[in-house]
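Batch manifest, entry 17 of 40.
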Amino acid sequence: MTSGISRSPRDAAVLVTGGSGGNGSAVARRLAAEGSRVFLCGRDLRRTAAVADSIPCPYWTGDLRDPSAAIRAVDAAVRALHGLDTVVAAAGSRGRTTDVSSPLPDECEDVLSHNVITMSNTLTASLPVLAESARGTFLGISSLAGLTGYYRFPYYTAAKAATVGLVRAVAPTARRQGVRVRVLCLYFTDTPLISDVLADLVHEGIPVQSTADVAAAVTACLQAPGTSTVWTSTPGTPPEPYAFRRIQVPGTTPAQTSAPPPAVSTPAAVGDAAYADFPGIIRSVTGRFVFTEIPGGMTRVTGQFNTGLDDNDVDRYTLEVQRLNGTVHLDLTPAFRHQVTIFPPLSSPFQNDYPVLGPTGLGATGKSLVLKYDGEVIGRAALLPIG
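Output type: structure tokens
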């Protein structure tokens, strides 16, 4: 495989696992609409058949936690499609345990197996076949919870972190065999999987995307150039490579062990960093703000709004970091009103330094950056750690 190989989905032979779920079915439909030859894999016979009939495409049903079943699924796809170019591994489950001190019986093992074991078995079964394709690509679907952690779903968070680690470990060897292996970490998606907590997620400012957002992000990630392994996507924005914090291994130089820093317009960090992405759910407010520790025990806040600011009177806006209970952790309003000019629907860039705020840190669970207009919340973004 070379960098000059086309990544267009047109006429690509694609296996999609988790095909009876919201994300997998949306991805399969999107790829088929763009010209891919799709093979669907799911656990539920009735739902998988219904999705396959709607595309239409061939399908297989079984439990990918069984290694032999994964082999049969890949073999069936190869026979039906006369080869295999791409695998999108979207199988997984969430679980309902919220407190590890009182877990549901056997749920940790169940969630890990549905997410990690299924992806591992799919990798094992498909990599030799993908190596025979000039554009062999494996894309695992994971979650930003696996990068940042999320307190409501401890086992899901652990499982998604494991899928990221699995792909990072497999990718270098697969690359030498001519196969590109990636993992795409997404926000929570509006499917029945999160229906019981959807209102809470929106209240916390955590972006909840549609299955159409997921399908678009997957298609873009499959075609994106470069050698990066871990990718993230926020609703309405294209996927981008995720950069892990630099860790120097003794006896090596930084260049041998580190990835580029995150592509954000902030000074070099000397400590933790966090970001807040406004997803456009409320009043179509979008934008990004980054909080970075800098020398002198200070936190530098930089960012701007891209859409959703309809009034150029900056004094009518309030910008503050709130705790989960709604109390103010940090009021950015005075500096925001002093510095920023609004050119509806966007603002000029903002930057200001503040004392580092206490032992819990800006990226701790439950904090959000909140934008108000005349006292009404028009934008809310969860504050999440970088790295």
